[in-house]
């Protein structure tokens, strides 16, 4: 979205990175109870501000710089004020700030000259509506029933009419079609209509001499209780993001990320115009085609043997941490050791016979980040991928991502990925209940990797097991036939405290595999295995 720097934060200048980091923190930790403390105690913005303006009223800037950033800080500061922890955060002067003035601009923009509409506020992607939901919940928690009773008495009949107005609006938003033909236009028209109904209610209350503070507080409490702000927040979450390579791997460590920008395939003119963090809302009609067109600017074409960019379908929910991470950071969430192994495999294939391919199986693939990394690091046409994921929401997102990136054509000379909805354990027929990325659960019968792949004759070059700690051994035990047949060249396992390393080592030795290092995260066949291409760190 294009807007003034005073609204969307500066494009250059001393605090730019601090504002960017603040926006990232708000996106990733929007559901965390400790978000205010994290922002005011640890963020780069607060450190910069205290150094630059040691005597200013905290946390507002003395200028109009970054309106949404200042609004976010004010809302979070007021949340701390309600909790009685402002001194702990070092912002005891927050009570002096004109909170109601700013709140009126946000909640009732159509009644305040020069304000921004709700669709403009939402499209700025600062999560202002999520912060309003937090404030409303904090007010209810701080004052319990006393505030509700006092407000209801002050507003009279407007209390019930306000509750009805906001509840109906929230219900309409939650039940709306996520795949509307023109999602962005639908969002804009719906929020404008909603904004008008709320403004009309506020004007009626003012006409009966209800105090401004009571109107604003009622909007916060009733809106949060009805789920209105969470519904508005969800509406403006992008669900398609185009990421440029190698910037999508920027924070994965010193290697290989440090080498990737210098690689000729991405530093040359052919990839120089590929977009990064280009976001789209909606998944029907013209949206996928527009996303594909953006990816085409960096796809394997015109003689290129690699991809300059990929598109990732995200979930429009705050409960999906992976989706929030991509929106905030513009990075694929694939472990560094998996990326490094894929990089080396890609180098080996590029230097080998032209007919070489790489069979990559990713267990616990989530949104498919690692498979998209493979599609970019392996030469085009060489990837033969299979993902396994128990979360049906993540599976749907994966399928959309692979289709948008042209990885489902089935053509022999193209990279291809198969997405499987399955819960892999050590035996079939068990009932597994995974927690979905939206916080809900579903029941799914289990299967094994042997059952899914033993009938195939292809060799597996890389198997990545990235599931919950208690299930890693179960997945490996369900792969016994494949391992005993030495059909997997490299196995990468995410190791945590839940993994019993002695048990893991004994089992892997029993099926003929040896560890490549003491971390026990990478395994190759005991006979003929090559650790140079199998990295666990």
List keywords for this structure.
disordered N terminus, about 45% helix, 23 helices, three-stranded antiparallel beta sheet, seven-stranded mixed beta sheet, alpha/beta, about 525 residues
Ordered list of secondary-structure elements with their pairings:
Elements lengths: L4 H4 L7 H13 L6 H8 L1 H9 L14 H17 L2 H4 L9 H9 L10 H6 L4 H28 L1 H18 L8 H25 L4 H15 L1 H8 L4 E5 L19 H4 L10 E3 L5 H11 L12 E5 L7 H9 L6 H16 L6 E6 L5 H9 L5 E7 L2 H13 L11 E6 L1 E2 L6 E2 L11 E4 L1 H5 L8 E4 L3 H9 L2 H5 L6 E3 L7 H10 L2 E3 L6 E4 L12
Parallel strand pairs: 4-5, 4-10, 5-6, 7-9, 10-11
Antiparallel strand pairs: 1-2, 1-3, 8-9, 11-13, 12-13
Helix pairs in contact: 2-4, 2-16, 3-4, 3-5, 5-9, 7-12, 9-10, 9-12, 9-13, 10-11, 10-12, 10-13, 17-18
Report on the architecture of this protein.
It is a single chain. With 537 residues, this protein is of the alpha/beta class. Helix content is 47%, strand content 10%. It contains 23 helices and 13 strands. The chain has helices at 5-8, 16-28, 35-42, 44-52, 67-83, 86-89, 99-107, 118-123, 128-155, 157-174, 183-207, 212-226, 228-235, 264-267, 286-296, 321-329, 336-351, 369-377, 392-404, 449-453, 469-477, 480-484, 501-510, and strands at residues 240-244, 278-280, 309-313, 358-363, 383-389, 416-421, 423-424, 431-432, 444-447, 462-465, 491-493, 513-515, 522-525. The protein has a 7-stranded mixed β-sheet with strand order 6-5-4-10-11-13-12, sandwiched between helices. Strands 2-1-3 form a 3-stranded antiparallel β-sheet, sandwiched between helices. A hairpin with a 6-residue loop joins strand 12 (513-515) and strand 13. Helix 2 runs antiparallel to helix 4 and helix 9 packs antiparallel against helix 13. The radius of gyration is 26 Å and the shape is elongated. Mean pLDDT is 81; it is low at 1-5 and 87-96.
């Amino acid at each position: 979205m294009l807007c003034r720097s005073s609204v969307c934060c500066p494009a250059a200048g001393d605090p730019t990175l601090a504002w960017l980091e603040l926006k990232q923190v708000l996106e990733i930790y929007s559901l965390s109870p400790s978000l205010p403390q994290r922002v005011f105690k640890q963020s780069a913005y607060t450190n910069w501000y205290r150094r630059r303006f040691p005597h200013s009223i905290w946390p507002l800037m003395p200028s109009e710089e970054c309106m949404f950033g200042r609004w976010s800080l004010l809302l979070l500061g007021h949340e701390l004020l309600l909790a009685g922890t402002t001194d702990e955060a070092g912002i005891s002067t927050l009570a002096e700030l004109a909170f109601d003035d700013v709140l009126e601009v946000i909640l009732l923009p159509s009644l305040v000259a020069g304000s921004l509409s709700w669709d403009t506020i939402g499209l700025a992607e600062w999560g202002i509506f999520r912060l309003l939901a937090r404030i409303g919940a904090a007010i209810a928690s701080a004052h319990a029933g006393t505030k509700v009773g006092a407000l209801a008495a002050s507003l009279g009949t407007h209390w019930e009419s306000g509750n009805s107005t906001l509840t109906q609006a929230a219900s309409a938003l939650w039940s709306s079609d996520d795949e509307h033909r023109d999602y962005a236009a639908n969002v804009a028209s719906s929020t404008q209509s909603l904004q008008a109904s709320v403004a009309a209610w506020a004007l009626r209350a003012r006409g009966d001499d209800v105090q401004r503070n009571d109107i604003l507080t009622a909007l916060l409490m009733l809106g949060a209780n009805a789920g209105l702000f969470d519904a508005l927040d969800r509406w403006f979450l992008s669900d398609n993001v185009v990421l440029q390579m190698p910037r999508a791997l920027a924070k994965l460590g010193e290697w290989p990320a440090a080498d990737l920008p210098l690689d000729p395939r991405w530093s040359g003119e052919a990839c120089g115009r590929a977009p990064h963090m280009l976001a789209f809302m909606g998944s029907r009609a013209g949206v996928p085609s527009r996303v594909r067109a953006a990816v085409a600017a960096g796809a394997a074409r015109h003689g290129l043997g690699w991809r300059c960019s990929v598109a990732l379908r995200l979930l429009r929910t705050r409960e999906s941490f992976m989706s929030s991470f991509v929106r905030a950071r513009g990075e694929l969430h694939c472990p560094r050791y998996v990326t490094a192994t894929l990089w080396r495999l890609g180098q080996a294939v590029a230097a080998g016979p032209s007919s070489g391919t790489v069979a990559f199986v990713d267990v616990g693939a989530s949104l498919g980040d690692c498979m998209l990394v493979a599609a970019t690091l392996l030469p085009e046409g060489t990837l033969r991928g299979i993902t396994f994921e128990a979360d049906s929401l993540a599976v749907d997102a994966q399928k959309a991502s692979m289709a948008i990136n042209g990885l489902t054509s089935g053509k022999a000379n193209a990279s291809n990925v198969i997405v499987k909805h399955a819960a892999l354990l050590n035996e079939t027929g068990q009932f597994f209940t995974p927690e979905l990325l939206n916080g809900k659960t579903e029941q799914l019968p289990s299967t094994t990797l042997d059952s899914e792949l033993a009938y195939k004759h292809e060799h597996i070059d890389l198997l990545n097991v990235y599931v919950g700690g208690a299930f890693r051994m179960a997945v490996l035990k369900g792969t016994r036939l494949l391992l005993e047949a030495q059909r997997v060249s490299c196995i990468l396992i995410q190791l945590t405290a839940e993994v019993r390393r002695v048990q893991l080592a004994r089992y892997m030795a029993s099926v003929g595999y040896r560890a490549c290092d003491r971390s026990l995260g990478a395994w190759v066949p005991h006979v003929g295995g090559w650790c140079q291409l199998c990295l666990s760190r």
